[in-house]
Amino acid sequence: MIGRLVAKMSFGNDDPSQPRAGDSNGAGASLEALVRNAPLAVLSLDREGRVLSWNPAAERMFGWRAEEVMGRPLPIVPSGKEAEFRGIVDTVLGGESLTAVEVSRHRKDGSRVEISVSTAPLRDDQGDIYGVIAVTQDITDRKHAQAAAKLGEARLAALFELSQKSAATEDELVEYALEEAVRLTGSEFGYFHFVADDPSGQLLCRWSSAVKKARSANREPPPPSSKVGVWADCARLQRPVVHNEYKDLPDREGLPPGHPPILRHMSAPVLVDDQVVAIAGVANKMSDYDESDVRQLQLFLDGLWKLLQQKRAIAEQQRLEEQLRVSQRMDAIGRLAAGIAHDFNNLLAVIVGFAELLHRDMRAEDPLHEYVKEIGDAGERAARLTRQLLAFSRKQVLNPEVLSLNHIVMDLERMLRRTLGEHIELVTDLEQRLGASLLDRGQVEQVVLNLVVNARDAMPQGGTITIATANERLDAAACAALGEIEPGRYVSLTVRDTGHGIDAATRERVFEPFFTTKAPGEGSGLGLSTVYGIVSQSGGVIRLDSEKGAGATFTIYFPRVEAEASPSQPPPPVGPDPRGTETILVAEDESSVRRLVQKILADAGYRVLVAANAGEALLQCEQWEGPVDLLLTDVVMPHMSGKALADRLASLRPGMKILYMSGFESSVVACHGVQGQRTNLLTKPFSAAELTRRVRATLDAPPEP
Ligand SMILES: Nc1ncnc2c1ncn2[C@@H]1O[C@H](COP(=O)(O)OP(=O)(O)OP(=O)(O)O)[C@@H](O)[C@H]1O
Ligand SMILES: [Mg+2]
Prior knowledge:
- By secondary structure, this protein is of the alpha+beta class.
- The chain has 5 domains: 137 residues, PAS domain (Beta-Lactamase), CATH 3.30.450; 121 residues, GAF domain (Beta-Lactamase, 2-Layer Sandwich), CATH 3.30.450; 77 residues, Helix Hairpins, CATH 1.10.287; 159 residues, Histidine kinase-like ATPase, C-terminal domain (Heat Shock Protein 90); 118 residues, Response regulator (Rossmann fold, 3-Layer(aba) Sandwich).
- It is built from 21 helices and 22 strands.
- It has a 5-stranded antiparallel sheet with strand order 2-1-5-4-3. The protein has a 5-stranded antiparallel sheet with strand order 7-6-10-9-8.
- A hairpin with a 7-residue loop joins strand 6 and strand 7.
- Helix 7 packs antiparallel against helix 10, helix 10 crosses helix 17 and helix 18 runs parallel beside helix 19.
- The chain is rod-shaped and about 155 Å long.
- The structure holds adenosine-5'-triphosphate and magnesium ion.
- The site of adenosine-5'-triphosphate has 23 residues, from helix 13 and helix 16.
């Protein structure tokens, strides 16, 4: 109906070659006025697609004046859309009407206009179709709003998806977010970089998959932000930056080798307290990046950053809780272990000592020789075990010197390379100017060995072990995260492997004594507990970073001391068991230990006085008329400690030397006042040779001032 009416109107079409519906009766005139004044663009076309009519609203909408288009092919169809246009016209010429078809057209100035078209056939008086009429409405704004909403929805969906990835690692989150940002902005590739806050502004990079693929053959570390040309502009300017004419930029060096060429580029920073902490960029959208792309990237980036922060906060919280649980459990186990080990040491001193005496005093051809030797060997093994337990419970007697971790690592390196086997690569990365620390060489060697052996065991198929040292300055936050240490200067020792890693449940227990995941006979589970004890007793802490399947890194921090490390010293040579004839007073409450000591010393030629406690010792001293050259006393005895006894006797017997014995408990020794005299301390269990050597050395030492 509309078709018929409008077709009868003329909007200044005076071309006689064009079919026109001539008459201008009253209805026609008012209709013509209606169409002329209509806010909607109204136009009609003949069967060949030439313009028959074009109202002022069409002029406004498309920018062509009526006289420019009348009788000519419709100029508003963009290239590439001709077939779609022809399809619509043919449908209508076939007699069908179409309502609210949404298409895109362009204006005279080339800009896009989105329209909704309703179109119907034009019929002449005989009812034959001679053209089409179209009423069009500009829906550009609505379309943009819709597109923005859709994008917003897609972004929300992506953000939601992101927030659902609570189990994902940080890497996976960033990777996912990056691919989404690339997708949502219609880009070809992108990057996400954390900006480290050291002065060089080193960037820690994640590339989207397209770049990664291109760069896979070429993997050197990313350059610092000061050296990377325009793509870190947003970090320097602290705001989003768009380069739609990338190739024309004068200052665009800094693309890593292998990187695909950039045509257009947009990047945005994440700002925290006016500091750029991360930047993200996307590149090579088909058309120019605009405001909405920038907003898109910025919003997505902010969302990602919040999630990363949450994730980090949660992970940190979990780490602290895990650490607390571990340290509480370790304390409890440590106390238990220390108690057992202390009592065991007294027993072992007796077993090992008497087995040694028995062995020595037997005739060489005695058939029981072998049995005695077995007892002695088993005793030694048991002593080693208790030593490990004591190490774990931080109750060892340490022999600290000012050392460089580097020396220890270098001294061990050759032996490690030999023993690790072909399938394992050992890399050392030692800080040249490493500070010194106060360490027990033998114990730290034990630490390195245990860590390296574990690393090897975690890589049955082979891999790489890296031993690194570094100077570290730990602030309050770092210390809080690490455990009970004070902020300050530290040296670190890191042992990293590329093995099967440690899952969360195992991570909580690895430092427990006797915890092992190895087959019976393959591991005792004492390696890491020894490491833990030695490190804690040396005032250090251990940090373990590992995920299942992703290798393990043990980092140990030892307090740094301001002194020069002493060079490696060879152990003193072992000579024959020394003897003597001096008088020695032995104070020891354990009768079997007392008897053992008495026997060993008497056999070595000494005159031995024995006492089961301090009181007896005092009495002995008073009654004995000859000189007493040495007091050999247990540290912990009932009623009066060894130290108190020594102090009492000092006035009675000036010039008498003192040697303490103890079942290892350095802290107990210390609280009995023997600290600082550890060269005068003999730890149980000891061999006969050790005892006689220490006794001789103490007797021969120059008198203390
Ligand atoms: N580098 C590592 N990679 C993977 N798992 C490890 C690593 N280091 C230690 N572990 C795990 O920690 C457990 C305890 O280690 P620990 O050194 O205390 O005992 P062990 O190696 O099993 O036995 P031992 O050291 O007494 O021979 C191991 O059984 C293993 O499960
Ligand atoms: Mg081990």
